[in-house]
Specification:
The structure holds 2 protein chains of 2 kinds. By secondary structure, chain A is an alpha+beta fold. Chain A is 42% helix and 16% strand. In chain A, a hairpin with a 3-residue loop joins strand 1 and strand 2. In chain B, helix 1 packs antiparallel against helix 3. Chain B is mainly α. Classes of the chains: A alpha+beta, B mainly alpha.
């Protein structure tokens, strides 16, 4: 076919023609940046406020289907969770063809899947993980369970901000309509009860996913199915955790949900105790370990008292 | 508990023990031990209040400990400068442990106790 437009322009027009048509003139789509099972995310220009935003558009072939419902649910969940670790929703509406879209803050950064290679040291790694845990604790407090927490759903921004993404399969406790037998989540990061397709998965499922995330950050792999194998792999991990941190991971990954931390807040509290050098609920310490932590915590004070006593003893001895 | 009160408490308690330790390091002072303990406790109280007052205004572990060391050393010097009945002075025996007590009070008041409220 003869054409008077260059092939690149024709190809661009063909691609642009597949982009959704947003209502009104406020948002102008610039380019797609990601596509998931439920929706496609585009960078768009908010002409009213002169800023770039992210627009998530339903992938549903026709309006009113299950995907639209999920996207609406995600937008509503995000709207009720106002937290620094959760992307804020600015707007929502319907496309000309009736499909759903919502507008949110555009976050510049990379997912934890790629960022993890650049994390140096346990403190920096736990700093990021702690932010994820705090975000999940906030969601649990608000009655929301994420159900699909994994490295690609955690975004680390250019200025160190940590955001939990993709709340598309999140459930609002007491309103969850997920049918029994429906598997929600990602293999490797989903809890055993999610894998079994149990209808009622609560905050402990997210705790499992948090444990899986920490396991992955330490070892580079998703956790194995058995606690014994998980223990073995943690011992052989490149970032081998000390006993107390390993115990936190293993408690979060307990196959029985009742053996895990009940809420992300409990995990966050244990993690904070670990980072402060104190005892953690996941690990029963020996008297020697307790004495060691006590010494580390009060070492300056103990050394000063010891210096005083040595000084006194020295003067008594020299007389 | 605010920092000056904490300083007085720590300084006072350490002052009692500091005074009592004279029985070990200088047994010949036993007849004057009551006076030594009272003096040492009083010294610890003053040092504690001063160092605690400083800690309530300056939040710095290093500065707090240095101030504790200097203040305690100064008061210990005043005590050591008073001669014993036989005319001798126990400068090192009093000033060195006394200065360490100041370090401890400086550390304790920086780490613990309620800081001054900002209006």
């Amino acid at each position: 076919m003869t054409t008077w437009l260059p092939n690149a322009v024709v190809e661009h027009l063909r691609v642009v023609a597949t982009w959704p048509e947003l209502p009104g003139e406020r948002y102008v789509i610039d380019r797609p940046i990601g596509r998931g099972g439920m929706g496609t995310v585009y960078v768009a220009r908010d002409t009213a406020l002169e800023r770039d935003v992210a627009v998530k558009v339903s992938n549903a072939p026709a309006p009113g289907g299950g995907l639209d419902d999920r996207l609406r649910q995600e937008a509503r969940v995000l709207a009720r969770l106002e937290h620094p670790g959760i992307v804020p929703v600015h707007d929502a509406g319907l496309l000309a063809d009736g499909r759903l879209f919502y507008v949110m803050k555009l976050v510049h950064g990379e997912t934890l899947s790629t960022h993890v290679a650049r994390i140096e040291g346990e403190a920096a790694m736990l700093g990021i993980f702690e932010r994820v845990t705090e975000t999940m604790a906030f969601a649990h407090e608000a009655g929301v369970v994420h159900r699909d927490l994994k490295p690609s759903n955690v975004m680390v921004g250019r200025f160190g901000e940590v955001l939990v993404l993709d709340w598309g399969v999140a459930s609002v406790m007491a309103k969850d309509t997920t049918l029994a037998g429906t598997r929600v989540g990602t293999p490797g990061f989903m809890s055993p009860e999610q894998a079994r397709g149990e209808a009622a998965t609560g905050t402990a499922s997210d705790v499992f996913a948090l444990g899986a995330l920490l396991f992955w950050m330490l070892t580079g792999d998703a956790p194995p199915l058995t606690p014994d194998e998980a223990t073995r792999r943690l011992r052989a991990a490149p970032r081998r955790p000390v006993k107390r941190l390993a115990a936190i991971v293993l408690k979060s990954l307990a196959p029985d949900a009742s053996q895990r931390y009940a809420h992300a807040a409990d995990l966050a509290a244990d993690l904070a105790r670990y980072r402060a050098g104190g005892p953690v609920s996941a690990h029963r310490e020996t008297a020697l370990e307790r004495a060691g932590h006590w010494f580390v915590k009060y070492r300056t004070f103990i050394l000063l008292i010891a210096a005083y006593l040595v000084m006194r003893a020295m003067f008594a001895f020299l007389r | 508990m605010n920092k000056p009160v904490l300083g007085a408490l720590v300084g006072g308690i350490l002052g009692i023990f500091d005074g009592l330790s004279a029985l070990v390091s200088a047994p010949e002072t036993a007849p004057q031990i009551v006076g030594i303990i009272i003096g040492s406790t009083f010294k610890g109280l003053i040092v504690g209040v001063l160092v605690g007052w400083y800690a309530s205004r300056v939040q710095s572990l290093a500065k707090g400990m240095i101030v504790g060391l200097i203040v305690a050393a100064f008061f210990a010097y005043l005590v050591a400068a008073m001669p014993q009945p036989d005319g001798t002075h126990y400068y090192w025996e009093i000033m060195l442990p006394g200065s360490i007590v100041g370090l401890i009070v400086g550390y304790a008041t920086q780490k613990y106790g309620r800081a001054r409220r900002i209006a």
